[in-house]
Write a structure and sequence with these properties.
alpha/beta, FAD/NAD(P)-binding domain, four-stranded parallel beta sheet, two-stranded antiparallel ribbon, binds flavin-adenine dinucleotide
Length: 284
């Protein structure tokens, strides 16, 4: 230790860094978050990108997973200014013929718009959304021993498939296939890769179970609420503070890097096992 320092330093103030910092601060640890940018939030930033007064979410904008997250829910972020806005329908997928296929909160109402594929949609997403609360701990938390292994295994049977295989096996029409493909494309995996179905199932399940809300005032307001929650617990965030190396940080018992694998190598390469470095550098 170089000086009295903190129990923990977190580098990066994205939602994961702030969540880690809040967890530590609420456990009574002294914690500070260093953020390179002038505002906190990482992917939760909102900026005037076009005209003055018009605020745009720069990255994340629809928050089914935040709304369903057991961690975020237990923070009572509404007490720190968070307000969700729920559109009448969570999402719609435009088709080439000028129509759109709509995912409604109700599984039955969504199925009604899918013609002969309605029954399959209702079978899959009816069962999943009924278990959404139960699955949240296992699907939206860190990897650990599952709390509901049977429900998770049932999810895994479909989730391990490539999205294209699932869509072509289960649905026969373009509307249901397109709706599912649009959901699964959020995985950023090619739709013929194994496990690409999983994110489609998760986003569809939570669209029905909790909606796809956005944040009143923009995603930045979610970051602001997280920072207010952190400060109420005794932690702090320092913006405009790029960290060049973990060795340049003030003394701390723990350092958490809320960064991409390549950034981790840049900041802490010498501390990593030599064999780990090339693997992390290859990450895209
Ligand atoms: C185009 C796009 C759209 C998305 N849309 C959605 C959506 O609608 N809904 C949703 O839930 N998710 C969405 N996501 C995903 C979401 O943005 C990420 O899951 C989330 O931002 C990850 O949070 P994080 O805390 O891990 O990292 P980040 O949010 O990336 O935060 C990392 C932080 O570290 C800081 N940093 C980097 N290097 C340093 C350094 N050397 N020193 C100090 N600070 C540093 C960065 O400035 C940044 O603030 C989207 C992602 C993308 C790319």
């Amino acid at each position: 230790m170089r000086d009295a320092g903190h129990d923990a330093v977190v580098v990066g103030s994205g939602p994961n860094g702030l969540a880690a910092a809040i967890t530590l601060a609420r456990a009574g640890r002294s914690v500070v978050v260093y953020e390179a940018a002038t505002t906190w939030g990482g992917g939760l930033r909102t900026e005037e990108l076009t005209l003055p007064g018009f605020r745009h979410d720069v990255c994340a904008t629809a928050f089914p997973l935040a709304a369903a997250s057991p961690f975020f829910r237990q923070l009572s972020l509404e007490d720190y200014g968070l307000s969700w806005v729920h559109p009448d329908a969570p999402l719609a997928h435009p088709l080439d013929d000028g129509t759109a296929v709509v995912l409604e909160r109700s599984v039955a109402a969504t199925a009604a718009g899918l013609g002969s594929d309605g029954a399959a949609w209702e079978r899959i997403f009816g069962a999943l959304s009924a278990r959404a609360e139960m699955l949240a701990h296992d699907l939206l938390g860190p990897l650990r021993v599952p709390r509901h292994p049977v429900a998770l295994a049932r999810f895994g049977v479909l989730g391990l498939l490539p999205a294209r295989t699932l869509a072509r096996t289960v649905f026969s029409g373009e509307r249901a296939r397109a709706l599912f493909a649009g959901l699964a494309a959020h995985s950023m995996l090619a739709l013929d890769q194994p496990v690409s179905a999983a994110i489609g199932l998760v986003l569809g399940m939570y669209a029905h179970a909790v909606g796809w809300p956005f944040v009143r005032g923009g995603a930045q307001a979610l970051a602001d609420a997280l920072v207010a929650c952190l400060r109420a617990a005794g932690g702090d965030v320092v913006t405009n503070h790029p960290v060049e190396s973990v060795d340049a940080l003030p003394a701390a018992r723990q350092v958490l890097l809320d960064l991409t694998p390549r950034q981790v190598v840049a900041l802490a390469g010498e501390r990593l096992r030599p064999r780990a470095r090339p693997r992390l550098r290859r990450d895209r």
